[in-house]
Amino acid sequence: MQNTQWGPVHDASLGRDVQSKIGEQLRAMYDDVVSQGVPDRFSELLKRLDRQGGGDH
Amino acid sequence: MNLDPSVRDAVLSAVPSLRAFAISLCGNVDRADDLVQETLLRALANIHSFQPGTNMSAWLFTILRNLFRSEYRKRRREVEDADGSYADSLKTQPEQSSRVEFSEFRAALAKLPPDQREALVLVGASGFSYEEAADICGCAVGTIKSRVNRARSRLADLLAIESVEDFGPDHTTRAVMVDTT
Q1: Which of A49, B105, B106, B124 has a 20 to 30 Å separation from B85 between CA atoms?
Q2: Tens digit of pLDDT for each residue in B77-124?
Q3: Domain that holds residue A29
């Protein structure tokens, strides 16, 4: 196949493709965790610290 | 400590994003949650040093990042193959935080040097500006920009290689063979 002309063009568009895919996947991966919200462990930790601290004063 | 409710709410609302950042830094959900917990304890113990009106989220990210860095340095002395242990941790908990569709991406992300990984995540996913990311990482804005660029092109290399494999001759050959039998 004579693709000397197409080769570089194809590579450049693949590069852009990969770049935007990286952005999308990065955000999707991140947002997947964010969407889990605040695990009980942390809201309880804050409540406990607040109560403990309140008792000290 | 008597926590101001508005401060407590600001801390709580940063937790989901802190977890996402922590997981992308250390790759292991349990370690990440421990890191978040340590961050919250550290933050609340030093809440007087937080300046009201400034970005609570950036302040918490800075604490988490610094805790991770000191832990990472310790661990690297203990375990030479940090990336190997990261890869193993992915295999043991595929469903907990990273669905299967992200596993390839996470594996590629894990191959980046920590400097580049944190810069990319802060700017590309956490939504911080280059300036904020530079503050969080304690470096110059130009350094963040070049780390993000290097991270992107390294990831592009890693993922492009994998997608070529996906559509490579092996698959085509297999498809042809199935067709002809």
Answers
A1: B124
A2: 665 455 555 555 554 444 444 455 678 888 999 999 999 999 999 999
A3: 6-56
Residue B36: count of CB within 10 angstroms of its CB:
26
Contact check, Cβ <8 Å, A32/B98: yes
CATH 1.10.1740.10 is held by the domain B1-98: yes
> How far are the Cα atoms of B79, B111, B146, B169, B177 from residue B173, in angstroms, in the given order?
42, 30, 41, 6, 6
* Residue environment code for A37-52, b if the CB has 16+ CB neighbours within 10 A, otherwise e: ebeeebeebbeebbee
ipTM field: 0.76
For residue A46, give the nearest of B12, B109, B159 by CB distance. Answer: B12
pTM recorded for the entire structure: 0.76
Separation of alpha carbons B85 and B100, rounded Å: 18
Q: Which residue has the tokens 């193993």?
A: B88
Q: Mind giving me the DSSP string for B68-100? A: HHHHHHHHHHH-S-HHHHHHHHHHH-TTTTS-H
CB B135 within 8 A of CB B128: no
